[in-house]
Design goal:
With 405 residues, the chain is an alpha+beta fold. The protein has 6 helices and 25 strands. Strand 16 and strand 17 form a beta hairpin. It is globular, with a radius of gyration of 24 Å. Pfam families: Glyoxalase.
Length: 405
């Protein structure tokens, strides 16, 4: 049996700009802000003026058309705001493409990194840095494996890029962010006082990626020490899919969807003792929404896709993944899930009201951010974080990284 909830419409207020030169303005939006022109319409095929156009920008829409020439002061009362993951990069690209500063990009009195610039066509844009969407998997290096080697493997096999790394005084990695497949992963060696354990990572947990052509990535992974858990082939449900285990013990699912649009990023996927109960808990605490559900012939959940924090997670019943002779998947270990939120206190309270247990109390941590973690009633760990621009990002280790002491 398959069920799927209706996808919501994309609602909101779409700015409509009457530009002195629509086509050049669209090109500027692409070059400076990373937008993508969606359509350009003319009243007649012979017209040079653009009657209507649209561009995708920052996961939203902006409409443009050619307007009459006017003084810049006519648009002084309009500001086009972008909330982005990396305000400094957007700021630099805009200025490299002819923008001029209206308000310096800096941490403002209200605590956000914010600035304004004017594009070459007279319109004012503001940028600020907001929390990232989705659920990010946080991997803890197993005993005998270094976080540095895990990062190197992901970067080499999947084309990842290290965005920033913090180090403990002893040189081990406290926290690292890796950009991969349009999403990101967090990794760590763990705290210095961490007890050594020989346990491998939690086997029912899978790092899932949709790829355009997974065959070359699959081959590269095997050449770099991965082993096949499920051969890459067209599976019974119609998608090209395979599962492998990397040299650190973590499992990866690589898929080329047959019909659906590929989902960007690295999607946390896990098996749980009671999927129906887990789904309801995620709905209650995180306002999660079920987007797809497949039941097994026995009535268990074989696969469920949920939307959480504008991203996706996959989960299913453990009974569908148990090896013969086993009756338990064991305690989850080696991985947690992190959400960046503007208001983590509200979700924290919901979690506590619904039988979560505290792992790290929610408070301002020594690195300058509000952070806390808890275990849900089925044993998985979730971390909530409110990013603070006051806690500066460190550079990668090979580019003058800074130790935290």
């Amino acid at each position: 049996m398959t069920t799927s909830e209706e996808q919501p419409c994309s609602l909101g207020v779409i700015p409509y700009l009457l530009s002195p030169d629509c086509k050049k303005h669209l090109q500027w939006i692409e070059n400076a802000l990373g937008g993508k022109t969606q359509q350009i319409m003319h009243k007649l095929p012979t017209d040079t003026k653009v009657m209507h156009s649209s561009a995708i920008l920052n996961e939203g829409l902006v409409y443009l058309a050619d307007g009459e020439s006017r003084e810049v002061k006519d648009v002084e009362n309009l500001v086009l705001h972008l909330e982005v993951k990396d305000a400094e990069t957007t700021w630099k690209r805009a200025h490299a493409n002819g923008a001029s500063t209206c308000m310096d990009l800096k941490v403002q009195s209200w605590g956000s990194l914010y600035g304004q610039f004017r594009d070459p066509f007279g319109f004012v844009w503001s940028v600020s840095e907001g929390p990232a969407s989705g659920v990010t998997a946080y991997l803890l290096a197993p005993s005998g494996v270094t976080c540095e080697s895990m990062i190197g493997w992901v970067n080499e096999v999947y084309g990842g890029q290290t965005k920033g790394t913090h180090y403990w005084p002893d040189g081990k990695i406290m926290h690292s962010e890796i950009s991969v497949n349009g999403g990101r992963l967090f990794m760590s060696d763990g705290p210095p006082e961490r007890a050594e354990t020989s346990d491998p990572p939690h086997q029912p947990f899978i790092l899932h990626m949709d790829l355009g052509m997974p065959s070359s990535t699959w081959k590269r992974a095997l050449e770099k020490g991965a082993t096949s858990v499920m051969d890459l082939k067209v599976q019974e449900w119609g998608d090209l899919y395979g599962m492998l285990r990397d040299s650190s013990g973590f499992r990866w699912g690589l898929m080329e969807p047959k019909d659906a649009t590929p989902v960007r990023g690295v999607i946390p996927s896990f098996m749980t003792p009671d999927c129906a109960k887990h789904v309801e808990w995620i709905k209650t605490v995180f306002s999660g929404k079920v987007r797809q559900l497949f039941n097994s012939p026995e009535g268990k959940v074989a696969h469920c896709m949920m939307e959480v924090n504008k991203g996706h997670i996959y989960l299913g019943d453990a009974a569908c993944a148990l090896e013969e002779g086993k009756n338990s998947l064991g305690e989850p270990r080696g991985v947690s899930f992190q959400l960046e939120l503007a208001d983590p206190d509200t979700i924290w309270k919901k979690a506590m009201d619904n039988n979560a247990t505290v792992v790290v109390p929610l408070k301002m941590q020594f690195w300058g951010e509000l952070f806390g973690s808890f275990k849900d009633p089925l044993g998985y760990e979730w971390a909530l974080r409110r990013p603070s621009i006051l806690a500066k990002k460190t550079e990668a280790k090979d580019a003058n990284s800074t130790e935290l002491k």
